[in-house]
Amino acid sequence: MTSTANRNSRNRSENAIVHLLLSWSVPAVAIISWQLLAVHGVISSRILPAPSVVFAAGERLWHNGQLQSAIAISSERAGLGFLIGGGIGFLLGLLNGLSRIAETLLDSSVQMLRNIPHLALIPLVILWFGIGEPAKLFLVTLGVFFPIYLNTFHGVRSIDPALREMASVYGVKSWSLFWNVILPGAMPSVLVGVRYALGLMWLTLIVAETIAGDSGIGYITMNARDFMQTDVVLLGIVVYAVLGKAADAMARLLERVLLKWQPAYQS
Amino acid sequence: MAARLPVLNGGSNPPIPREQPNHVVLKSVNKSFGASPVLSAVDFAIPYGQFVALIGKSGCGKSTLLRLVAGLETPSEGQILIDGAPLQGQNSGARVMFQDARLLPWKRVRDNVGIGRQGNWRDEADQALTEVGLLDRADDWPAVLSGGERQRVGLARALVSKPRLLLLDEPMSALDALTRIEMQRLIERLWHEHGFTVLLITHDVEEAVALADRVALLERGKIALDTKIELARPRQRTIAEFGQYEAKILEQVLGPAEE
To answer: Are B141 and A184 within 8 A, CB to CB?
Structure first.
């Protein structure tokens, strides 16, 4: 028994290592060949500087503090916009999911607005807010609002009516019904919305910072473009990718915690 | 009022003397969904503590009758009396077990059993789980339980509030044969111990004869047969009388066998 269990667990950890190696092998090979091609002059350093050069640019900007402050500013914009847009989307999704009157009143309007690509509003947003912080916050807020609204609404509506009926037979009402049945029932769908919104959050912020800004990662890359610093531009792209990955990892952690009842998360 | 209705006292639990003998009374109840009538002029009374099985083919309205007694539906015409008083809204003294357990997948077994309870519900839930023999699964998620275990958790959840009326809507129909017999014995034992009234909806004649004091057959929205099962408990399914009851009811359900 125990020896089988040991062997199984050893097999599983070996499998995990193999899986990790395999999934990282393609990017590793890509980066190594890129480095080799750039070092041997096959790729021009103005088109695509070597990874080591990009890394050095990162070190340089880190030492003079520019990188940290840019990451801090961009993350703050992203986070604040996410909280505002996501918060409003979540509350409105709950409201429209729970109340037929609210749905009739508001849902068709929201659906109409949803069809406007929010980035198409950039000229209007610049006219309204100039190029300052409110413009970026507004765009991020708008970008994350819709996926969270739609998925929250859908999540509330798709709760099994049999479970709601059971709850009512067992005397679960109002606040307790919301807390014990509706909220956890809607949560898988809400979290799908959160992951989708996190992607849109970075996308919107990148566009907003690149078009108009005087700080943040997007500003650094556009500034570097003016001085033909391809390495810094690439660095900015890498930083965006890392931040996006970090946000996704956080969303997955949230799923692990909030959806631990799902068989997929039970090991 | 109630005295005019057919009253059948049976079973091993003597009825507790009260002002009126019937726990549940349906008085010429009609129920239709849209234009299609489901129940027509049903008169039916269940004395306190009786175990009644209501059988019928699918679509005969037996689940609708249970839902009316639970207060989940309202009759189109007629009246439902609980303890002699007209039922308004949900029947708070009744608990329902559904065909599937309807456990909340995001709550552990103990929290599922204690749902809607207040005060020291954890102890009550553990006690109910002990009664169905599942205390050791109290901290598990419903997703890891077998079908039979889920229904036992559903039974514990129904029992935790010490209901006086248990409404069983085919709770054993999805279980395999052996698990079903275990579940039947468990329900019978708990009924003995607690003395609640039971209305069991089933399409399984053997199950009805094995468990019930009285079997009623619902056919095209009417009570077509209402018979006491006078067999001593615990009931032996192999004895001749058991088979006779079963055959008699089956014949009524299916119509006389063709020559």
So the answer is: no
- pLDDT tier at B257, thresholds 50, 70, 90: low
**What chain B residue is nearest to A166 in terms of C-alpha separation?**
B102
Q: Which of B72, B92, B105 sits opposite A171 (nearest CB)?
A: B92
* Nearest residue of chain B to residue A185 (CA atoms): B106
Which one, of A224, A190, A225, A206, lies nearest residue A86 by Cα?
A190
Task: With beta carbons under 8 A apart, name residues in chain B contacting A261.
Answer: 105-108, 141-143
Q: Do residues B69 and B167 lie in contact, with contact meaning Cβ atoms separated by under 8 Å?
A: yes
For residue A215, what pLDDT is reported? Answer: 87
Nearest CA to B23 out of B197, B224, B157, B147 is that of: B197
Q: Does B106 reach chain A within 8 Å, measured CB to CB? A: yes
Domain ranges of chain B: 103-162
Cβ-based contacts of A165 with chain B (< 8 Å): 72, 102
Q: How far is A216 from chain B (nearest CA, A)?
A: 41
**How does pLDDT run across B152-173, given as a tens digit for each residue?**
999 999 999 899 999 999 999 8
More confident residue, B20 or A65: A65
CB of A181 less than 8 A from some CB of B: yes
User: CB distance A176–B116 less than 8 Å?
Assistant: yes
pTM of the model: 0.82
Residue A12, pLDDT score:
74
DSSP letters for chain B: -GGGS-----SSSPPPP-SSSEEEEEEEEEEEETTEEEEEEEEEEEETT-EEEEE--TTSSHHHHHHHHHTSS--SEEEEEETTEE--SS-TTEEEE-SS----TTS-HHHHHTTT--SSHHHHHHHHHHHTT-GGGTTS-GGGS-HHHHHHHHHHHHHTT--SEEEEESTTTTS-HHHHHHHHHHHHHHHHHH--EEEEEES-HHHHHHH-SEEEEEETTEEEEEEE---PSSPPTTSHHHHHHHHHHHHHHH-SPP-
Measured between beta carbons, which residues in chain A are less than 8 angstroms from residue B160?
Answer: none
Would you say the C-alpha torsion A163, A166, A168, A170 has a positive or negative sign?
A: negative
Phi/psi of residue B232, each to 5°?
-70, 150
Predicted pLDDT of residue B246: 93
Q: Does A262 touch chain B (CB under 8 A)?
A: yes
Which of the residues B115, B117, B160, B165 would you substitute to probe the A interface, choosing the one with the greatest number of A C-beta atoms within 10 Å?
Answer: B115
- Nearest chain A residue to B69 by CA distance is A169
Q: Is the peptide bond before B234 cis (omega within 30 degrees of 0)?
A: yes
